[in-house]
Structure formats: structure tokens, C-alpha cells
Amino acid sequence: MADRKTATSQVQEYNESSIQALNPMDHVRKRPGMYVGGTDVRALHHLIYEVVDNSIDEALAGRCDQIIVTLHDDDWVSVEDNGAGIPVGIHPEKGIPTLEVVMTQIGAGGKFDNAAYKVSGGLHGVGVSAVNALSEEFVAQIKRDGQLWKQVYRRGIPITTVEPIRPLEENESTGTIQTFKPDFTVMEQNEFSYAVLAQRFREMAFVTRKVTLTLRDERVKPLPKEITYYFEGGLRSFVRYLNRNRDALHEPVYADKETEINADGKTSYYVGVEVAFQYTDTANVTELAFANTISTPDGGSHLTGLRAAVTSVVNRYARKAGLLKEKDTNFSGSDTMEGLTTIISVKLPNPQFESQTKVKLLNPEIQGVVSQVVSEAFYEFLELNPREARKIVDKCMTSRRAREAAKKARDLVRSGPSLLDSSTLPGKLADCSKHGAGSEIYIVEGDSAGGSAKQGRDRHFQAILPLRGKILNTERARLDKILDNNEIKALISALGTGIGEDFDVSRIRYERVIIMTDADYDGAHIRTLLLTLFFRQMLPMIQSGHLYIAQPPLFRLKDGKNIEYIYNEPGIYQTEILNKALERYNNPDRVNVQRYKGLGEMNPDQLWETTMDPARRTLLQVTVEDAAEADRVFDMLMGSHVPPRRRFIQTHARRVRNLDI
After folding, report:
1. Which of 78, 158, 386, 394 is found 20 to 30 A from 284 (Cα to Cα)?
2. What's the pTM?
3. Catalytic site includes residue 445
4. What class, spelled out in words, does domain 436-552+623-658 have in CATH?
């Protein structure tokens, strides 16, 4: 009781002085997750996206056709467009320059009444002001009203007034130049990735037709790296790009239509729907969805409307053409979506997103609008192209047969000890005593590595599942074949989540699923096979943050009683890594170097110390930043088309004489 009283007496009294009224910029800095999704590397890139989205909105309004994003030295970034430029005059209500209102006031913007912008990605007036608050320094330059205007901010606070710098030159366009440096006292210290930004801007350029979008990296010396995107074909070009390594069954089905709707019975507004989709010979589904050019990775009402329309049209056409008999059941949604690459983009004045990071579109009325547009375009395509229509229906027939075979396989499994609900665990699994939060399972290759891992682990929270050989390449296999593979069945049973349509991430038995393979090419191949399985059949597990890759050491250096472990560094030869480490020793010739070619060569205590001990190990969390790029990479590396894979290997593989492993 004495301890409790002491603790209570230390708690500050709750009264009027306990309530803090933060100014908008301070609130952003204290709660960045509310505005940009956090402080990690993804949130860092989101800062750029928020600024670029404003330029895209100018393009949607017809006032901009060129956007240039430049990565400068020392973490500076600039975004320039040739739009109308942010107004700089005194705001009639605030009494300060309008530019300053936009840059420092949450809820300020020109996108609330649909007057200046009929559609936009910015909704809440928090975009650029949030970026300003999270920037060590932010320089806004505006070209309009015959002048180049400038104002400088630090951590969201203006340190200069809005002032004209010079008159605009003859024929110089209006526009906005926003230059900022993230504040790494709030954001985690990370670097902007040229590759991540290039993927995002490629998508933006596809979705925003006839806009030139340039990404320039001046950090690369002596000559900057630069790429420019411009697409006339819009989503039709995007679908062709995604399917360039696949065999398409037909030309893309395409529609671009503006429809007037009346959602509340009082006011009407127009919704733009652009959609393109194409069937391929693969078993994979690729779906991308956008709302006002903003990627919505979790889909929403627009994607739901597209799926429903595709399934309905295929069934209606197949019945009319006599390809589905009276006794035949209709195709299911999974039958008609298999092998489909589809992109849907909607533009509407008042989108409702799930959060400020805009991952899912919620407007219920959009589902019907999209469904109508897709149904009309798709049915007309099937009527005018009977040969291609037959290919599509045959594809759906094949998908249904595979689905039914997979169902039989699941039912057969369920008739005995149930694989998919993990009531019977595989015999090779060395389970742990604790499950759920804090528990983890290591997936290792072979009995030798499995033996070391089983002896070295902490049995309380670490489970070990050794796999024999290389599992089936699930990029090329249907679910019934996948369920025939003993190693995959053991994995599914151990995880307890099911697979494919039956997958339920809430049933996962371990918090962390860790792939631990040898640091050689066979190990890399096995890791890729496992990643393919998880990406194609268990994607929610990756999206929920459960999947990791272990980082075992490459070398063990022993100098007398001193022992040091050396790990891989991406992009650096292993001999270079070793030589760099040996340079730290006074007498490198006396250092005993042990090369670990496989996990089985490591003693259990060494494996624990270097790779499995939570206090000392390094784990890489697997994420999917760009679904389209991930889909392309898996298709290229593990698909049936050899030429793209050969080009990739020829581009990235080391010459045989330079191999380190």
C-alpha cells in the first residue's frame, strides 16, 4: 500500500492547466502518424507524394502539364509545376498572405467547394501544411501575377514574409516550386529512394494522361540520373506495360466515361470512370485502383463494382452464346478474375477515404457507377470480338475446373486430420510452448540446419520447421497442385492460416514468420520460392507485417580470444566485405577466417548468438511497397517466360570469374 500511495502522489493533478491547446504545426509534429502515416521511410516518401499530389490536382484542373521532382544533396527535395501558382495576396478572413495560410493552417485549401478544383486528391487541407511542419526548412516559390514570390519556413513557422524576388521573364510560365528538407528530429533518419519514387511517378503518369512527370536525382555524380514519364494511352498503356512479360488473350478492354449521379437525392455531380483490363494465360490476379489519381491499395467501392461487373457480364455472355448450359452453374468471382490484369481509376468531387493516407475508397455510390460503365464496355467488347470472347470463357472454364479440383483437395484433406485448420501439426515441426504475441517460427532448409536451429533456439517462443529441398514454384501452379506438395502442406499446417481463399491471417499461430536460408544461391532460390508462395497465396500475412528474413553471418573471424561475425552488405562483393573487415586488425594474417557456406555448419550456440537471439540478431521485415512492381518481379523471376528472366540475369548477375559464393 505504501508503494501505491507513493506512486499516486507522483501523478500530476488533472485540472485546467492539464489541457494543452497546440497550434496546428505543433500538433502535426507531435502526431505525424495522423497526417503522413508515421515517421518511417514510407512516411518520408509520403512527404513528397503530398506535395506532388497538389501538382497533379493542378493537372486535373487543366492548369498544369509538367511536373519536375528533383532530389538534391543533403536530403533536400524540390517539386516544380507549371500550374497557376498558389495565390499570394492577403486572405480576406485571415488577414495574412494566402500562401502563408495554405502553408501553415490545417484545413486551408481550395478543394472544399469544388470551385477551383472539380476533383482533387487533396481533401482535408493538411497535405502541404503537414509537410511544412515536418520539414527542417521549407522554401515556397510562386510564379504568378507577373512576379516570382518567395517565403521561407522552419518547422512550419514562417521566418520571412511573402515577398517578390523578381519579375517573371517574357514567356515564363506561372507555377509553384516547393523545396524542403525533412526534419529528422521528428522523422526517422532515412534516405529518399529513387527507385521507389520512380515506380510511384510512373503510376501517376499512367493515370494522369498527357502530363509530363520528370524525376531527377542530383545526388548521383558527376551526371544526375533522370527519367521522364509521359503516356498518351492512359490505363490502356498501363495494362500493356504490366502484361508485357505475359501472353495476353486479347487487346485490353477499355472505357473512359463521365457519368452524372445523384447520390443524396438533392445535388448531382459528375464522376469520371477510366478502366482497362486484359486476361492473360497466368493464374494470377493483378488489381490496381485509383481515386483522383491517388493509389488505393486496399481497393474500395470502385474495385468492388468492377469485380461484380466482370463476373456478371461473363456469365450473361456465356449463357447467351450457349457456352454455359442450363445445367451448368454460373462462374464465381474467383473464376472470372483469375488471370485478369485490371486497373480502375475514378475521379469524383467528394471522395471519402478510409484515412488521411487514402488506402481505401468508401463512397458507396461509386460501386454502381463503375459497374454500369464496365458492364457496357465489356459486353460490347465480347459481342464484337467472338473469338476473343470464347478464349475468355474458356479461361474461366479452366479456372472453375481448377477451383473445383482445389476444393476436392481441401475436402479430402479435411476428411482426415484437417490441414487447413491445423488441428494436426506436422511431425517435422519443433513447436514452441508459447503462441501468439511474441512467438516466432523459423522456416529453414534441410535437416542439418533444422538440427542446429532446434538445439540453439529458445523453446519457449521459437518454433522450427525444416523443409526438405526446394518447394514447388507456386507462380506456375494452381491451388490443387500446391496442396499436393508435402512441404507446403507442412507449412500451411504449422502456420494455421489456411491458403488461398481459405486464408485467414487472424488464425496465424506465430507473431513472426522468419525465413532462414543459407547465404548462397540455393538459399536465395529457396527464399524466393517461399516469398512467391506467401505473395501469391498468403498476401495478407505480408501486409500485416508477420513475414521476416533472417540474416545469418557470412564469416567468423577469430583473433586470439576475440571473435567477430561479418554479415552481408547489399551491392558489395563478399570478398570486399571480408577484406574491409580484416583491415581493422593489426595482423590480418593471424586472423582465423571461417566461411559459413550453410547454416548446418554453424554450432547451435553460434546460430543462436548471431541469427536467433532477439537481442543481437538482425531481421528484415518483408513489405510490399508497390504491388504492381512486386507482381512484375515475381512474374519475371518465377513465371513461364524465359526471355525477361534471361535479360534480368544478364543485367544483374556477376561474371563467373568474379563469383564470391
Report:
1. 386
2. 0.67
3. yes
4. alpha beta
